Amino acid sequence: MRLHKQLLRMDFYVIPPNSNMELMKKGDRFFCLSQIYLRNAEYRKFFKARVAEGSWVTLDNGAGDHETVTKEQVLEIAVDLQPSELIPLDILFDGKQTLENLKWTIKAKSKIPSLSNVEIFACPQGKDLTEWIEVYTWMLDCPDVDTIGMSKLAIPYAISGIKFGDVGIAKDRNEMFKILDNQGLIYKPLHFLGAGEAWEFELYKGNKFVRSTDSCFTVWGGMNKQRFGTEDYERIPTPHTYFDMLIADDCMDDILHNIEYMKQVTKA
Q1: pTM of the entire structure?
Q2: What tens digit of pLDDT does each residue of 189-218 get?
Q3: What confidence score (pLDDT) does residue 67 get?
Q4: Which residues contact 120 (CB under 8 A, 6 or more apart)?
């Protein structure tokens, strides 16, 4: 595992609809979705430009958006894009298959010289809390895994049995973080995949291993005229059509407010 700079701040990735990709530049890093990369030439062009300028680019496999590519395609895209890190194919709520895919990726990647500088970011899955922690611990101890993903889908399922609907994300990930911390199991960089409420991240402030988080909720909230920091904010589940949607001009002020609010929340 590479030595990561330990920062007392979290980085935040902004994830907008494809019609407004420039909004990603309001964040600290860039999150590339494999399934969109394969079918959208402008999206490919945008991310290749980010790699060329030296920005940090995470290549995701699409599992969190219920539109996965194959484990082979993740590597094929990585060869073409040369991202900073890639997320091997994880299978929702299936720890065994997720680990098999990770082991396959590690072995296959080792045979591709052009990927030698691309890091591995692994996302634990499990049918229950016990299996999730077993998979997490394997990834924690694996020297080929640089960063571990804390999924907005896998963790609520492991903690509360909630499968979908963007429900319980903040509460259940706070609970999982406390479980891991109490067992001394936080000693590798963590990335929080997706988000529910901004208050979730207050617990993680100042922890040197909490690296970053990504979400579309700053933009999606603004598209629904929601402003973070107000008492009546309530997470609206993100629709599967989100990336194909257009942003109305009168929503931009709320979107920019939410992005700045989130960046302040994630900074110590």
Answers
A1: 0.95
A2: 999 999 989 999 999 998 999 999 999 999
A3: 79
A4: 85, 86, 88, 102, 105, 106, 109, 144, 145, 146, 147
The string of DSSP letters for the chain reads: -PPPP--SB-EEEE---GGGGGGGGGSSBEEEEHHHHHH-HHHHHHHHHHHHTT--EEEE-SGGGT----HHHHHHHHHHH--SEE-----TT-HHHHHHHHHHHHHHHHT-GGGTT-EEEE----SSHHHHHHHHHHHHH-TT--EEEEETTHHHHHHH---SSS-SHHHHHHHHHHHHHHTT---S-EEEES-S-GGGGGTTTT-TTEEEEEESHHHHHHHTT--TTSTT--PPPPPTTGGG----GGGHHHHHHHHHHHHHHTB-
Contacts of 92 (CB under 8 A, 6+ apart): 63, 125, 153, 154
Q: Could you give the domains of the chain?
A: 11-265 (3.20.20.105)
Q: What pLDDT, in 10s, does the model give residues 216-243?
A: 999 999 999 999 998 888 899 999 999 9
Query: CB atoms < 10 A from the CB of 73, how many?
Result: 17
CA within 13 Å, CB half, 255: 22
Which residues lie closer than 8 Å to 117 by C-beta, 6 or more apart?
none
Q: In 3D, which of 16, 54, 12 has the Cα closest to residue 211?
A: 12
